[in-house]
Amino acid sequence: MNFRTAIFLLATLTVVACSSPKSSTYRRPLSAVPVQKDTTSSRTSLPTNPLAIPNESAASVAIAIEDTTFVNLKDFSNDFVYSMKYATTDNFLKSKVYQCEACYLRYKTVKALLNANEKFMKRGYRILLFDCYRPTDIQKKMWEIVSNPKYVADPKKGSIHNRGGAVDIGLVTENGAEVDMGTPFDFFGIEASHDYENISEEVHQNRKLLRKIMTQNNFRIFESEWWHYNLKNSNKDKLSNFKWDCP
Fold first, then answer.
1. Alpha-carbon distances, residue 151 vs 39, 105, 130, 142 (angstroms)
2. Rounded Cα distance, 49 and 135, in Å
3. Which of 45, 54, 158, 214 could form a disulfide bond with 70, CB atoms 3.0-4.6 angstroms apart?
4. DSSP string of 220-245?
């Protein structure tokens, strides 16, 4: 190889190296994806599966998302288990009020929930989801079925579910078995309250674990329901009627 040939090859390699991506872990930015408008709160909401990349984690998405943006939990983790009761008739209303199963939340709620689930997984559990964000139109539909504030929040006032800051959850084991919490979800008796003591030691420890990790990750309990957790200060967010598209 003569001197001129060597210089030509060196220059070619330099150009190729400078024009290639610096990392093979490049992620398509969410900001390049069309967004959906939340006409109630004047905020934007990311569409279902905006990343189009399976198993994408929130930590690996190096973009700015507003904390109040509605996002689909499944776009950030596949480590949750879903049993969305109000997308079925298996609930105290005995009526299906959602057209399809989905867990949308404000982004700040998703971040806190991801952190909590990571802690549960280290102990051999995963979060089981019963309900997440609930549009105000769905709240009105529930109120029409059961117009009792003991069981359903008056849509005129709304609930934290309507603000994207509440989740109804339980736990499952690594084998997928639901953890015993003493009562079913949406059991409206004193037995479902956090301070109820006439329960087995196993149930007591299960509720204690759920409460401990959720409160350590910026959630607050709802005293009469062991399954209901509100993100701290989420009552300051506006009520929303944002709706997601069903398949």
1. 28, 22, 16, 10
2. 20
3. 45
4. EEETTEEEEEEETTGGGSPP----PP
| Residue ranges with strand state E in the chain | 36-38, 43-45, 70-72, 81-82, 104-106, 125-131, 166-173, 219-222, 225-231
Task: Kindly give the residue spans of alpha helices, DSSP state H, lying in 20-164.
Answer: 107-122, 136-145
Give the mean model confidence (pLDDT) for residues 48-74.
66
Q: Please tell me the least confidently modeled range out of 1-5, 51-55, 188-192, 212-216.
A: 51-55
State whether residue 81 is helix, strand or coil: strand
The answer to whether residues 166 and 160 touch, using CB atoms and an 8 Å cutoff, is yes
User: What is the bridge-based pairing of β-strands 104-106 and 166-173?
Assistant: unpaired
How many CB atoms are located within 10 Å of the residue 78 CB?
11
- Determine the longest span between alpha carbons in the chain, in angstroms: 90
pTM: 0.77
What's the pLDDT at 225?
97
CA distance 12 to 23: 20
